What does this fold into?
Amino acid sequence: MSDTATSGVKQGFQLKSASVSMTALELYYFDDGEFEEVLRDKISQAPGFFKDIPLIISLEKYQGLDSELDFFKIIGTCRRNNIHVIGVRGGSDDQRRLARGAALALLPGNGQRDRTHEAEQVAAEEAETAVVAASTGAAGDPPPARIISQPVRSGQQVHAPEGDLVILAPVQAGAEVLAAGNIHVYGPLRGRALAGIHGAESARVFCQSLEAELVSIAGHYKISEDLQENGWKSAVQIQLRDDLLVVTPLDKA
It folds into this structure.
């Protein structure tokens, strides 16, 4: 037995569950040169959003003629552009074998969850529901909103990991606000707002003046250039419809 164990010192680490906002690259086909060109174009639209993000490659809609995807090329291209590929979602058995060979994590696709996985998921959801019911009461009240009364300044990040985020002041350019649920900004929204970060497609973003660098709901996003086409510098709500972000004036919502 080591001296560390006998002296009562805590072990070197613990494993804990964590919820992390993740971006998926939905791959339809792969051409090495074109892939990097399109990737750089996307990054140039919102460089702050893409810098050093973890990325999942989704193969659920991949239409390549063969399964010999070169994951090493994909990983290398992404690394050159400060994006870190950490796993693959979906794909055929051969594609997932190649991904495993490239040391990527394997995530089940929507059509690949077998009965065992579904049973485990249902059991986990039931356990989670029981915990939520115990902590919130029989009525199952939603998690309380996080309320911020001060301006969110450039370089700051404000995070509501469970419920809504309500900001009673401006969100300045260069700031970032994130929420599992809705985001309400009672002032100008000039920074980046990411709602539904755990995949809640029903989440919305409300603001008194839309001047954002980027708005995202459940991983779908629009940058400033696209947002200026509708509702710019006015009171709006933004929601997800058919995988597209729709901006609606609050007085017409």
